[in-house]
Amino acid sequence: MKITRRHLLISSAAAAAAASFASRAFAAAPPLAKKDTYKVGFAQTESNNPWRLAQTKSMQDEAAKRGWQLVYTDAAGSAAKQVADVNSMIAQQVDLIFLAPREEVPLIPAIMAAKGANIPVILLDRNVDQSLAKPGEDYVTFIGSNFVEEGQRVADYLVAMGSDKKTIIQLEGTVGSSPANDRKKGFDDVIAKHPDYKIVASQSGDFARDKGRQVAETLLQAHPEANVIYAHNDEMAIGAIAALEAAGRKAGRDDCLVFSIDGGKEIVQLVVDGKVEAVVECNPRFGPKAFDTAVAYANGDQIPPVLINPDELYTPENAAKLIGSAY
Ligand code: GYE
Q1: Does residue 164 register a pLDDT over 90?
Q2: Which atom from ligand 1 is nearest to the alpha carbon of 147?
Q3: Do 270 and 312 form a contact (C-beta atoms < 8 A)?
Q4: Collapsing DSSP states into helix, strand and coil, what is residue 281?
Q5: Which domains does the chain have, with CATH numbers?
Q6: Of 108, 201, 216, 257, which residue is least crowded by CB atoms under 10 Å?
Q7: Mean pLDDT of 303-325
């Protein structure tokens, strides 16, 4: 059975909200009153990596700077907990919710419940299934990177290198998350146009360092001929380097090329050291833009359906120069 917008509404825990939502379906996203200060929620997905910690700090710093109250929750890697977190923010009557939806589909009921309670939602860093919820209607906007383009940039770089290393292992992010889906699509589509390159294995390491290490270890055993690793984030790339070294292999141009996305200080240093070939930045410092967007929305400005963050590309040519600005 295909899950439709209607099914999700009916199955939502917030049945009362859903009833009032029915009459509002397809109307504009809830408004935000103009006030001097706000109480806003930030529903984080997990805190198991430096990217998440940098994002949380950026949101907390911005709230403090403006004197806004921030209701912060950490879903600890569980979409179900994140839905509950959003429902608790609704019960606390926050003015607006910043949501980093862990996965594309399970957070839809939370967005609909907030809409039903007349609380606007701004999506940060991860998106939701666009056939089930729409910007400007169900939530205000999505702020984040273009993940398809991030994957394309890695593949374009690899192909442009013209190296003889063409046998690829891909470490995917969290299953069902928009960055994992899109970083894979962007990369795979470019590689498909170059039949001399081959993705021999592609598996999720859940955006986590140790899971990335374990998955890389297994895949390197199954495919010892692999000589390129493309990881959907820094954490899994760092885990993969540990797996390569444990297998008596080397990360770098002499043996196995490693690529990643995020661009934290630790990985940029590995580019400087020659262990990582290139990293597409995905900047986690969302605070200023997130809060500015909320204010613009309260002022009645037209908010575009997506607000894309510009991303740097770290390479052996610029890594030493740019490391100071990496998170
Ligand atoms: O790449 C990863 C994090 O959603 C863009 O999630 C974000 C990704 C980021 O856990 O490190």
Answers
A1: yes
A2: 5
A3: no
A4: strand
A5: 28-144+284-308 (3.40.50.2300), 147-282 (3.40.50.2300)
A6: 201
A7: 96
